[in-house]
Every structure is written in structure tokens, then in C-alpha cells.
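Input/output pair, single chain:
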Amino acid sequence: MKKQQMFSSIASQGGENIRLVSNLEAGKKQTVVTYGTSLTAQGAWVAQFSAELDRRYPGLTTVINSGEGAMWSKWGVDNLDARVTGKQPDAVFIEFSINDAYLPYNMSVEQARSNLETMVDRILATNKSCEIILMVMNPPTGVHLAIRPQIESYNQMYRDVAARRHLMLIDHYPNWQQILNADPKRFSAYVPDGIHPNAEGCKMVITPRIINVLGMTAEPEAAGGAPKARA
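Output:
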């Protein structure tokens, strides 16, 4: 775990000049697209993050949730134009690893990497200044882990792509894993179905992590256990 946390910290600094925040601080309007699985489509963190941006930079941000439940990176590639590039985003959050690892989809790590690289390339071809932020989400448990036995290989691929391409990475996995190990009851309270964090879990773990890694000072996350996330 220590090695993973160290890598996450380094990769999260892949783009020291965070254009999204710099542009907002300069008074420039920004469109943000969140793209991924049900962890995005149904994730309370998207609305929480949008509200925090609006609180800090009133009237400057438009956040579009383009996630879709039960989807994976092939769907991400197939729907990229309509769901992402057509929105002319200034920043895009991407997470598909948890469903790329889903056994019935028969998606190898290599295929998932190719799909992720394709999405990155196509977004940058449309707007070379678009800030792409990769995210690794929470660990699944129970039956959800059983049908994603190689989840960490897919997560590591995201870390590797972020490091190689100097993209920002927000790695939620170590914080969630620490909660799961130290206080399983609290993890279950935050992720009651074993895979989807509820609004409280997002508020305590995911949203403050995003805010901190972006360089926007936030309160300590997951009070009572998980560490304060720092970029």
C-alpha cells in the first residue's frame, strides 16, 4: 500500500500548472465534463464538486455529467463525440477502469489501455489545451470484487498512462482502501452496496480529494480515519 500511495502522490502532480483552476482564478469561464461509469453517472461527487466550483467561482463553471451506468471504455470511445468533445470542454475527468475489469465484458488491460489512449488523443485533437484528469475510484467488495478479480491491474494501467503522458491523476483508491482496512463498518456505511459510494461517502472522501489535488484547499476528508488528501 505504501508503494501505491507514493506513486499516486507523484502521478497526481503530473500537471503542476492546473489550467482549470488557473483559468477560473483569471475569471475565464470553464466547461467541465465528467465521463465514466455509474460511479460518475450516479456519483454525488459530481454535483458536490460543481457546487463547490460555483461557490468559489460564481457563474464561471458549467459541469456536464456525461457518465453512463454499466458502461466501459469501448462505450466511452464510441460515444466520445456526443458525450464529450461535442460539449467543447476545457477539462475532462475520465474513469472507466472499474467496469473495464468486469469479467463479462471480456476487456483485457491492453484493450482498456488502447481505448483510454484513444479517448485522450481524440480529446486533445479537438482541443490541445483541454485538461484531462484521470481518476481511479474506490475498491469494489463482495460480489462486485468477485466479478472484477483483476481490478488493480486496470487501476494501475490508469496510473501508468497518467505518468507516461503527464496527465493529472486523482487516485481515490488508497484512501478508500485505508477506510476498508481500518473501519469496515464505516466503509459499508459509505458504500452500502459494495461498489457505489453514497452521497455521504462522496462528501467525506471523493469530493475533498478532488478539491485538494486540484490545489483548492479543503477540509480534511473522511474525518475520523482517512488522511487529508494533498496534491
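The two ends are 18 Å apart (CA to CA). Residues 2-213 form a domain with the Rossmann fold fold (CATH 3.40.50.1110).
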